[in-house]
Inverse folding.
């Protein structure tokens, strides 16, 4: 029986992945909420396949994810996110062949193939990610221009506010704030809240004393 751990906090895509797994033989899925639960589950199932939405899970950066890979060398990882930066993908793919990459916008046949490859101990890279890897290296930190609204939302993100809390504060919809969030991450070339927070601190948008309160 192959254990698949779903480390994806987005309800709709997690449900979709569970549906895909139901169509496979000898597969048992389990949802893990955070790193602590992931560690416990990997200790119980050290040869599991982890389907990870890196952009929403609580990994601080690529280095921390790679440490997990070293700690659990028999685990296969399927990175399953809406978008990932070129630098991040290059670092992960170059560091270990344990990582497969498939984006949430990928067609269903690619998502199924990514799971099958991982379960058979092989790497799978979806077409869009392969094109990203083959494209020229770009610097995502040149000429970054955030709008006033994006700057305000980035500061709130860095101070630990959730998307819902920011939406309530701004009297706006969750969808609108989430769209701003995606645009901010794309412009900064970051994948998650931790990386965005580091940028906000370096840029002086958030005072370090204010951040650590």
């Amino acid at each position: 029986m192959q254990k698949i751990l779903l480390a994806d906090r987005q309800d709709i895509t997690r449900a979709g992945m569970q549906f895909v797994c139901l169509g496979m033989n000898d597969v048992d899925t389990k949802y893990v909420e955070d790193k602590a639960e992931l560690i416990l589950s990997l200790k119980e199932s050290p040869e599991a396949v982890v389907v990870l939405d890196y952009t929403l899970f609580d990994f601080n950066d690529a280095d921390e994810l790679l440490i997990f890979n070293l700690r659990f060398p028999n685990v296969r990882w399927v990175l399953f996110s809406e978008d990932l930066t070129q630098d991040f993908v290059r670092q992960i793919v170059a560091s270990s062949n344990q990582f497969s990459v498939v984006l949430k916008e990928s067609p269903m046949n690619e998502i199924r193939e990514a799971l099958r490859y991982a379960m058979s101990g092989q790497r799978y890279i979806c077409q869009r990610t392969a094109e990203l890897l083959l494209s020229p290296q770009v610097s995502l930190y040149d000429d970054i221009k955030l709008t006033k609204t994006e700057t305000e939302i980035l500061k709130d993100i860095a101070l630990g506010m959730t998307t819902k809390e920011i939406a309530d504060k701004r009297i706006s919809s969750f969808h609108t704030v989430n769209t701003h969030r995606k645009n901010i991450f794309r412009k900064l070339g970051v994948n998650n809240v931790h990386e965005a927070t580091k940028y906000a601190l370096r840029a002086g948008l958030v005072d370090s004393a204010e951040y650590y309160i």
